[in-house]
Automatic annotation (TrEMBL):
<dbReference type="InterPro" id="IPR000524">
    <property type="entry name" value="Tscrpt_reg_HTH_GntR"/>
</dbReference>
<dbReference type="InterPro" id="IPR011711">
    <property type="entry name" value="GntR_C"/>
</dbReference>
<keyword id="KW-0805">Transcription regulation</keyword>
<protein>
    <submittedName>
        <fullName>FCD domain-containing protein</fullName>
    </submittedName>
</protein>
<feature type="domain" description="HTH gntR-type">
    <location>
        <begin position="13"/>
        <end position="80"/>
    </location>
</feature>
<dbReference type="GO" id="GO:0003677">
    <property type="term" value="F:DNA binding"/>
</dbReference>
<dbReference type="GO" id="GO:0003700">
    <property type="term" value="F:DNA-binding transcription factor activity"/>
</dbReference>
<dbReference type="InterPro" id="IPR036388">
    <property type="entry name" value="WH-like_DNA-bd_sf"/>
</dbReference>
<dbReference type="InterPro" id="IPR036390">
    <property type="entry name" value="WH_DNA-bd_sf"/>
</dbReference>
<keyword id="KW-0804">Transcription</keyword>
<dbReference type="InterPro" id="IPR008920">
    <property type="entry name" value="TF_FadR/GntR_C"/>
</dbReference>
<dbReference type="Pfam" id="PF07729">
    <property type="entry name" value="FCD"/>
</dbReference>
<keyword id="KW-0238">DNA-binding</keyword>
<dbReference type="Pfam" id="PF00392">
    <property type="entry name" value="GntR"/>
</dbReference>
């Protein structure tokens, strides 16, 4: 898997790291739903970590904007809203467009091959979705990350990459809340983005990425499932 590892534990992870990843995953996939109270005793039973470890984890997730600290009431899953989604979309574009330009500037031939490979997997799943197989939405979200990450992975800016990963997770949470694929237009945009990236057309790639991400945001809002 390229890039994102929140679906899997990594070798050498501490218990705290594994539990943090599991809780973040459950928030992103809405197993822990927006606004849910995060009671430490219940989390201890579910995730098998001590209360002190869980408190540390929840504070870290609060710093990542997946959790909100509610003072004496403890912690809760961060709520969702159209305003928050628009803010996340704007930040994603700010980070991803900058990283995309840098990757196009310095990326190697191996980087180009990775972009093409990740798009092939994404295209395969998108074809299944367009054909009516709605069970592939979760896999599509994963491959969508893999492809977009591949286009920017050559960017040699670790802080930028970490910030982009976080904001993409938060954007992905909304996709998984709605669980609806935008269809053939999204698939066609991905194919064009692949070609622009491999063709080293930075201006064209950034323009397409901007319209692509914005259209995805508007599609999520149009579902009617996201509160104002």
């Amino acid at each position: 898997m390229s890039g994102k590892t929140f679906f899997l534990d990594k070798d050498g992870d501490s218990i705290a790291d594994k539990v943090l990843r599991r809780i973040r995953f459950d928030i992103i996939t809405n197993t822990l739903k927006p606004g849910d109270r995060l009671r430490l005793e219940r989390l201890r039973e579910t995730y098998g970590a001590s209360v002190s470890t869980l408190r540390e984890i929840l504070n870290r997730l609060a710093a990542e904007y997946f959790v909100v600290a509610e003072g004496n009431r403890g912690f809760g899953v961060a709520p969702i809203s159209q305003r928050d989604l628009r803010d996340i979309c704007e930040m994603r574009l700010l980070l991803e467009c900058h990283a995309l330009r840098r990757s196009i500037e310095v990326g190697s031939l191996d980087w180009e091959a990775q972009v093409v490979c990740c798009h092939h997997k994404l295209h395969t799943v998108e074809s299944q979705l367009i054909g009516g197989d709605d069970t592939q939405v979760m896999k599509w979200v994963q491959y969508d990350w893999d492809f977009h990450h591949a286009t920017v992975v050559a960017c040699d800016r670790p802080v930028l990459s970490a910030s982009h990963s976080n904001i993409f997770d938060r954007f992905m949470r909304y996709h998984l809340y709605v669980l609806d694929f935008r269809g053939r237009p999204a698939a066609e945009e991905h194919a064009r983005l692949r070609d622009l990236v491999v063709g080293r057309d930075a201006d064209g790639a950034v323009a397409l990425l901007t319209s692509h991400v914005t259209a995805g945001m508007e599609h999520i809002i149009a579902s009617g499932k996201i509160p104002a």
